[in-house]
Amino acid sequence: MDTLRLSLFVDLAQSKSFSATARKFYRSQPAVSISIRKLEEELGVLLLQRGAASVRLTPEGEILRKQAVEILSLVDDLKFQASQLAKKPKGYVRFAAIHSVGLYELSDTIRVFIKKFKDIRLGLQYDEFRRVYELVESQEIEFGVVAYPQATNAIEVIPMMEHEMVVIVPKEGPFRGRAEVKLTELEGQSFVTFLEGTPTRQAIDGALK
After folding, report:
1. I need a labelling partner for 152 at 20 to 30 A (CA). Which of 5, 41, 179, 204 fits?
2. 195: part of which helix (H) or strand (E)?
3. Is 186 helix (H, G, I), strand (E, B) or coil?
């Protein structure tokens, strides 16, 4: 079935004027009339009641109008999806991440990305946070993933996720069974934390001051 004929019919059902539809589609009025006649012959039903001043849909024509709108919408969707496939992204994306984020937060995301964009290759390297900043600033990679990111003149920060920081305590320790622990209660306690100088360690030290 010719989708142009359907488009002409849908517009004619709305305008109720062969001349108006002909002007809209840059066709002659007889050409539009012939297209509608061929559509009626193809379907074997009368779609329009033609009058001197305007046209009206027959019951069969009203049924076709509703279905034609759906068909044309599906055709538009198909054309759009086909155009997107033609623009299917390809290439190589380089990025870096600190170990704690890359190993525990990116695995599932990378797996989904690879499944969705099979023509894009990913190049991921793990490094300490200072080196990640250097790689981004020198444009050796497209982006970096770090904890507690800091914007610079050359780097824009886009938040990716937020996590609540918790205290892990032994079952026999002074905080056993507690749902919450105040920061002031940690004063004087020995604990294992991140390496000195890392952004996460700096955030912890700042909170405990």
Report:
1. 204
2. none
3. helix
What is residue 133's predicted lDDT score, i.e. its pLDDT? 92
- Domains of the chain in start order, with CATH, are 3-86 (1.10.10.10), 91-145 (3.40.190.10), 164-209 (no CATH)
Taking CA 129 as the corner, what is the angle to CA 116 and CA 131, rounded to the nearest 5 degrees? 95
Predicted pLDDT at 60: 94
Q: Report how far residue 142's alpha carbon sits from residue 127's, in angstroms, rounded to the nearest whole number.
A: 15
Reported as type and span, the H/E element at residue 91 is strand 91-97
Q: Which of 89, 106, 121 is nearest to 160 (CA)?
A: 106
CA–CA distances in Å: residue 76 to residues 4, 79, 190: 12, 5, 65
Measure the CA–CA gap between 144 and 154, rounded to whole angstroms.
Answer: 13
Average pLDDT score, the chain: 87
Query: Which residue matches tokens 């000195």?
Result: 196
pLDDT digits (tens, 9 = 90+) for 24-42: 888 999 999 999 999 999 9
Q: How far apart are CA 8 and CA 36, in angstroms?
A: 8
